[in-house]
């Protein structure tokens, strides 16, 4: 098991972590269902003028009226599978946020990753709330203050829910670094409300 170097109860303002939002069995069942049944894509991005496929697979699920441009790359927009629609409704009721889109990431092993970024696209509004559910392998999640560069890491366990809200996207970057030795896959569900 990974050793976190931040106490998940003492995260910066705007980050809160619930370790067992889903049971171990439910998390495992959902992981295998989604791995088999979602239509995974590997979009390309341009970095310094060169085209690259992103280092993970993705699926973008959204209500019909959600502006497609949000997904940022050429992702096909998928309708909500029942199991994810039910989860979206529970999170909407719990957090009082009208989630209407979901970006799903599949990290096939520790070589797949996500670089430093903030989820601060204008379509997400000024202080977006993002609910991030983890399924499968544990991964280190890093948070870095944009001005002081101070960093914290937490380990996201299978079945956990990390909520980012308030000024978290304005003040911090986050990333999911490579873990070269990790052989196991992880799925991450990020529920978003797009205006
Ligand atoms: O996989 C994760 O936990 C991070 C996902 C993320 O940062 C994002 O989708 O913006």
Automatic annotation (TrEMBL):
Record bears the keyword Oxidoreductase: yes
UniProt keyword terms in alphabetical order: Dioxygenase, Oxidoreductase
Key word Oxidoreductase present: yes
Residue span, Fe2OG dioxygenase domain: 98-195
Name of this protein: Alkylated DNA repair dioxygenase AlkB
GO MF terms held by the record: dioxygenase activity
Family annotation (PROSITE patterns): FE2OG_OXY
Recorded superkingdom: Bacteria
InterPro entries: AlkB-like (IPR027450), AlkB-like_sf (IPR037151), ALKBH2 (IPR032852), Oxoglu/Fe-dep_dioxygenase_dom (IPR005123)
